[in-house]
Amino acid sequence: MTETVLLVGGGGREHAVARSLASDCDLHACASNRNPGIDALAESFETLDETDPDAVAAHAEAVNADLAVIGPETPLAAGVVDALEAADVYAFGPREADARIETDKAFQREFMRDHDIPGCPDFETFTDTEAACEYIDAYDGDLAVKPAGLTGGKGVKVTGDQVTKEEAKAYLREEDYDEVVLEERFVGEEFTVQAFVANGDVRPTPAVQDHKRAFEGDEGPNTGGMGSYSDASRTLPFMTAEDYDDAVDVLEAVVDALPTYRGVLYGQFMLTADGVNVVEFNARFGDPEAMNTLPVMETPLLDVLTAARDGEPLPDLAFEPTATVCKYAVPAGYPTDPEAGARVTVTEDSVGEDAILFYASVDARDDGVYTTTSRSFAVVGLGATIDEAEERASAALADVEDGFRIRDDIGTAALVQRRIDHVERIRE
Fold this sequence. Notes:
- The protein is 31% helix and 27% strand.
- By secondary structure, it is α+β, with helices and mostly antiparallel strands.
- The protein folds into three domains: 4-92, Rossmann fold (3-Layer(aba) Sandwich), CATH 3.40.50; 122-184, Dna Ligase, domain 1; 189-418, D-amino Acid Aminotransferase, Chain A, domain 1, CATH 3.30.470.20.
- The strands form six sheets. Strands 12, 15, 18, 19, 22 and 23 form a six-stranded antiparallel beta sheet that branches. A five-stranded parallel beta sheet has the order 3-2-1-4-5, sandwiched between helices.
- The termini are far apart.
- The relative contact order is 0.13.
- The mean pLDDT is 97.
């Protein structure tokens, strides 16, 4: 029997999920925005509020979905999985309560502390802005200032790096968040390990390094992610196999302490002089990291989803020995003052055989595809080495016209070497 799968979400991450599923099932999709890449792969695409649990559940019933896959964090926070479950549709994603591992950073850190999860920083939580500002003044060292709720990856400010202590206090007073987490700043190299989780099983995927900063050389404000790379093995050039194993051990410890968790568990780690520490957890695939991982996964994604639903052991995952480099094209002025309306001239045919186009936030019109004010599309280059993958990603983006900006340095030999040198220095 052919499975009917509902995909919730319309970004680049979800386009990668759709590409991995479409040939093996009857795929239907729904999202707040119409993604032309997903639209071309799916049997149907319904535009609806993806954070409305009742609307998503009703659509799942309308298409007779056997299971659903939730891409973004906002539907998880809204309880879409719970609503699907109430409608007798299995959803691969955590229930609202379990998604708090991402959606509530205060809960996340307290959970780590209560369950002795390795890699937890010293931290304090505050619901009073002035008390938080006093803590910043009194703290001897640099801090990561984190709103407890979702901010699209753009809410964290780090003293001694992005902002001064005075600027951090001004930021808190201006935003007046309901709750914030202040935690010790980790110094090192960040990397991500994502894992499929269900029925107590944890199946990790290769490590990826994302690039949050808007501009080359890791300058500028944080974004949702300007691009990322992975190597032909499960590790990255600045990591050891032991570092990777330590990260996986952390993910397994989380699942041991949260046995009802299912979906993708994303660990963002910092490799420091003291080893692997936890920057944060997310309750879903990363965007862009999903676009590095899924194209090289040889195990059918549908097999993972059906095993999860049926209560069976998750299959061991196999991956091609292929490096990937993902580069986002974003609107000019992004992220602070983005300009919409530029035409996207890159197509699936133009990127060639060794690269993949993933649409994100675009406006598909009768006369073409145009930018909105968020990340527009990504190209993933594939190769035997990171260098080769980067060259192919850059070649696929060579014809991008005015109105876009790309971080050209992502995946380059110079930037990767800088990461290697950095880790060598902090480990001396």
